[in-house]
Protein 1
Amino acid sequence: MNSYEIVIIGAGFAGAATAYHLARRGRADVLLIEQESIPGFHSSGRNAAMMRQCVPDPDLATLTRDGATFLRNLPSDWPEPVGFKQNGSLLLGSGTGWNKLQQDAMVGRSVGIDVVLWTPAQAKQYVPVLNRSEFDGAAWCASDGIIDIHALLSGYLKAATGKGARVRYNTRVREIHVASDRGVEIVTENETIKANVLVNASGAWANVIAEMAGARQLPLRPCRRHLFVSPPTQWVDPNWPFVWDVSHDIYFRPEGEGLLLCACDQTELTPGDAPVDESVKELLAEKIERFMPGLSDISISRGWAGFRTLTPDGRFVIGWDGQVEHFFWVAGLGGHGMTTSSAVGELAADLLLGGAGKKSEPFSPERFVRLG
């Protein structure tokens, strides 16, 4: 039987960044197992690649700030180049949504994120395609931008394996047996793997893995979201920031010579290879007509869907399970996984190396038990 100190289930951003930070601390006896043939197949490789720091919660904003700082200043020994376009972000708000966005900007500034409030006129001057849109104000964050997500995920994995960690693909977990005196046995299709600690970084499958281990089910919602890309379009400026109307849930950003667009749809689904629902194109068209009429001439060339795993309070789940020994959560990143990846991995590594007595407020999985 193969034996490791730590086995991480899931080679997306949560698992890869955790392995990276463990390896940086000298913990090389780590195995990542991934059910797919490539890393980031479901969520980490299907997101919009937008590094966004302005969020409502101060604890989460601390992670977005630290994660973004890491991404803008990768270590000198980082194993491969990661493209980053620091075009900034422009978040639009209307009515009560504008009031909330102003509060979010205050939260960001309180933790050191440079967020500036703009008038509609300023926003429209910077992104003229918004001239026919109606909103009450905007939050501008110049240090945001677009990351090459595939190179970033590859970098975490290469850096971790370069320090001794191992990764196995096409490895689907079938059973998990936990014994307080012997750690954890993970039964896959081909073998049984023993670990002292099991890290659940399995994204949309987090509750599936928890159930196998006998851990308490948490209120995690795996939700499908679609992204669409236009063909090359002459009036698109590749230097535009990503623009997100947070009151009406629609965003766009430059993608090549066209645009990437999202209607922020959110449908809870059983974990799997998320199918594309063509009707979401109609939702996107309706939102463009109502809230971003300057984009009305845009057409769609292709689209895809991925998962975002959400929690009721919007905070991540990072920490030791209160019911099952040797079981550790890194889940529920809710669409912020890329931006916060390094900060999440660093926090997880700190807690893992601190032992089961190390608490992870405000991200502890036990908070849901107390609420329930």
Protein 2
Amino acid sequence: MVVNSFKRGIHLPTRKRATEGKPIEQVPYPKQVVIPVNQHFGAPNRSLVSVGEKVVRGQKIAEGVTPGPMTVPVHASISGTVAKIEPRTQSNNTEGLCVVIEAEGPQDREEFFPPLDPFSCTTEDALTRIREAGIIGMGGAGFPAHVKLAPPPGKHIDLIIANGAECEPYLTIDEAAMTAKSQLLIQGLAIVMKITGVNRAVIGVEENKKSIVPLIERELRLEKFAGDISIGLCRTRYPQGGEKMLITALTGREVPSGGLPMDAGCIVQNVGTLIAIAEAFYRGKPLIDRDLTVSGGACTTPKNIRAPIGACIKDMPVEFMDIDHARLVKILFGGPMMGTAVASLETPIQKNTSGIILMTREETIAEEEGPCIRCGRCIRNCSCSLSPVIMNNSLEAGDLDYAVKAGLLDCIECGGCTYMCPARIKLVQRFRVGKQRLRLRQQQAAQTAAVKK
């Protein structure tokens, strides 16, 4: 097969060996889950349950405060009693309202939707099922899946891309899911093709996972709704799993500055999202479980797991998940490049949690920043062809407008520039703060305009 790629990017030690090829193991149901009411990019949700109420696994427990497309509901991941509804620290290190459910009774009680044939129902009914199942992008961003599958008029989509690149070090859950659930992956991809009216799709896989290609090819031959689905092999290079990079590698197209994948005629969905879509139609199952990788030097039992949404690592039995607390110095939700460091093992697993990395001192870098030496490594290796040094200088000078002109809003925050910087300047963190300052300025401008009116 031809191996595709994009320009620039970096080669990282993959550190996947600890969980590579391992099956997905079901976590024993915890005694308690902490389910954030808001787990998606969009308008806020409100709780539908009250303290003391009995809930069943799969029951809707939160939905949008006001009706609108940018909301997805949240469902109970275990059966039990609502013990608390209170703010808790989430994986983004902010406090958000959470529903705390204490397990009670047999966990085989479920409140799922009736199965729905995606090839005979209307497009509206299909999008409603995806929304009501609470499905969001499971690659990390948490964008509502039903919104991505309904591009606005005038946007011509001719290709669906299943993102199985999984370029972050340590993480192997997408590979494990494609291995164990290849049929569901193909079914989910076929459903998305039916909804969007697109007759061509590509499954993007990095070269270090080419061993699963024959398995997917076999399912493609067996699946009667497969259509024109092929596999695109990509070079193992970070951040190959970024939407823009994957589109360029597989099609040669470039997403324009400030644009989205649909501006290049593509819709990109993570393989986990596609599997969840298939389960929502054929099993009626809402998104209440999350497959993820738990690894790192401080994890003595690294593995790929399936856990109820809201479960915490601290509540998992030692015989299932053993942690060397004496060596644990950093907890990451997500991969080491784009993930978020959290303060506690009590942080709940969310819909977009692709992995939890338990790192030792030897695996982390805690060096002080030095002065920029103008070496240009950040520019040469930027996957988006930006100038991180100019963006950083502009932000330090307080010139937000010039930082935007230099490409601040096109930065995907992959962390490649920070990784390559010999001065150990925390560039990505600066860019994240810069974007926050820009959003705050825009909000203040909007409020001022509203007052003048």
Protein 3
Amino acid sequence: MKAFTMAAVLAATVALPSVGMATDLEVTHWWTSGGEAAAVAEFAKAFDATGNKWVDGAIAGSGDVARPIIISRILGGNPMGATQLNPGKDADDLIAAGLMQDLTELAAAEDWANILRPASQLESCTVDGKVYCVPVNLHSAQWMWTNRKVFTDLGMEPPKNIDELIAAAPKLVEAGIQPLSMAQGWPVGLMVNDVLVAQAGVENFVKVYKDRDLAIAGGPEFGKIFETLANIRQYTPADKMVPQWNEAVGLVIQGKAAANIMGDWAGGEFAVANMVAGQDYDCLPGLGVTPVLNTGGDVFYFPKSADPAVTEAQLKMASTLVTKEVQVAFNLKKGSLPMRADVDLSAANDCMKKGLEILDGSTAVFPNDIQMIDRDSLNQINDLFTEFMANPDMPAADAQAKFVSIIEAAPK
């Protein structure tokens, strides 16, 4: 992706034509679950209200499926009007090739640097002092979700942390309930990272992923984590894993599984099912061990266009996505936290309130993994974790040694 031809750059300026007084913008994203679809509909409604038209370009599957398609289209001269990506390094090559719209003037005019928080989100959109994307939410991955009825029906107290869940697992299995649901692929890596953060601590996690501290990665702190994962592994066999993350969350909603470890976007699925946080289900930040938030989330980029009407519509969309009303409407349905602190959150549920309390009153906020290490290394780590969790014969020490090798080889 480092080498580009001038033809590709010029071709990428071709965009959707304007229609009448309005402009159609195709918007690509991978928000296709029930909660996600309800949330993205709020963005579409708000943009349509500007007189333009949101042309939905949802890509089925996860971000791992959608990202290569999105990037390939932009490089191939068939760009969309706007696209969802995650904050991090995914668009660096596209920016370097001059293919992405510069939002610096808009960001300055609307004071994004002061109204959007935490600062790390906008910093991830900034390259050489210029802003190229707009952050729309703050997602955190460190949550455990439990179905309260599953436990109370068995005469058990709902677990307050991951250790209590593991302790309750034998009784759950005896009752025919899966203790911890799991989806294939990236959710395995997310779960492992959550356990790493909960048990090794934020400081050690950042030292390994950002600073490439091999002594910690190969030391006893991380060694204990791999032993914990081996213990969890017996309750998440490969034949019990489902294809998609929302299916795993669905098992908890249906009472077929007791718990799931997933990001706060799982809250959108519980909302669609009309379940009430703190009453029907519990959401435990930091797996109930140490409440923390990572600064992941979603951002929107806008490929350059030679059509002034398209550019105008792109800037209008960028501005619309961070207005107070839209931030509230979208994030309440997405399960994520709004980027602004000056919005009315009287309708926020128990989970969002927990997240906001950590965000606003705690120092336990840290970068997302993709903000610290390259995508290829992350994919290797996820593949390793998937293999380890699916293979009960792989010793914890062997998995840890392979993990150290990947961290050591990751480019800084």
